[in-house]
Amino acid sequence: MGEIESxxxxxxxxxxxxxxxxxxxxxxxxxxxxxxxxxxxxAEYGIIDLVFSICSIITPIIMCNIGEAVCRYALDKxxxxxxxxxxxxxxxxxxxxxxxxxxxxxxxxxxxxxxxxEIYLYTLIVSTNTVLVLYLRGREKLISYILCSFIxxxxxxxxxxxxxxxxxxxxxxxxxxxxxxxxxxNVVALILGKHYKVxxxxxxxxxxxxxxxxxxxxxxxxxxxxWITNSSDRILVTRMVSADANGLYxxxxxxxxxxxxxxxxxxxxxxxxxxxxxxxxxxxxxNNFMYDSYFRILSIITGFLLLSIKFILKIFxxxxxxxxxxxxxxxxxxxxxxxxxxxxxxxxxxxKDLKGNLISASIGAIVNIILNxxxxxxxxxxxxxxxxxxxxxxxxxxxxIDTRKYLRLKVVTKEYFIILFFLILMLVTVYYEFNISYLFxxxxxxxxxxxxxxLILTYVGSVKRFLFVRAAG
Length: 473
Fold this sequence. Notes:
The protein contains 19 helices and no strands. The chain is mainly alpha-helical. Helix 2 (42-63) packs across helix 11 (243-252), helix 3 (66-74) runs antiparallel to helix 4 and helix 4 runs antiparallel to helix 6. It is globular.
């Protein structure tokens, strides 16, 4: 019992720390969206999203995902942090020098040719930030880790108000707000993590360099494939429909991305617990318990977003962007499959099994590309949303089957199928504009919540006990 309480407290503590940091940063970003929709045109928003989509694919290439290796190897018992940082800084130097090629390449992409310098600076600064903060995370300096994220988000908000609203700098102002904010975050990370001491304690370990490089380089194709699944649809919508359509499509991502926020918070904490539990006797039982809780929580969140998506966007964005709601339902359900797939795929991270990650990402990318080319010409951006949803489903299904060699998760149950059936029914119902359709949505959502009543009552009971103990003390 004590061990269960200990592992539970460890997971809850880490989740709470990540939640405090992530919700602060995400709320800042979330509440900036209305300002963006009033200050930027749909075309400008589409171009900005295109820039960030391109940067998200350049970053893992020039830095070879070394940040992920830094975090994972720092979590090992007996890790030599000086040697790990030495490897990281060698890769940073290589990345900064090789990244110069970005500027002439961007010149040949007409729609973003005037932002080459900004793209170069943003990519390098964010790449550096990833390495610095993931080192903090690997050292379990979680307060410092989330502080860096919060500072960057707060400065982004302040600078965007200045650059977009006061100075009216448009796209360039938006990009410079991000560049300067991450630069400040890098300074804070260097101070908190004392990374600069690597110069004094420079310790090169050839074997570690080879191991970390192999780990990170193997993740590069994985990142490319995930980029295809996550971001290529926006480029294809821009190319095959218009930048305006991509602007609407980008806004439609904002609500579903709330699920990604919840997932990221939990998964960051769960990775620590999963590594800690690798040799425990009841590892499989514990993982099944966590999967069941996670599935039900995600179901309740997914149903709520499907229920309220139209109302949220009606209040949240300008009238020009309201019709973006029609793409969100598929993305909401898709994000549920993505977050479940991320949970199942944690075992790859724990076991350092990069092959499983790579194959599952390949399946998702192939499905996404094929469906995008089939569906976008027929139904426009709606086709991109449907393709994204189905590609996440395929990734989830593959990982469930493949990870059985490590853990046998019980994902096929009658209740799970019933919950998924009513979530899909909600997705269909939300597209009907009749007044009575909202009553159907409420009824369908009530069934989803009812099926997870035990979990809800358990958490309510835990909160009551906590409050009672606090009051008694």
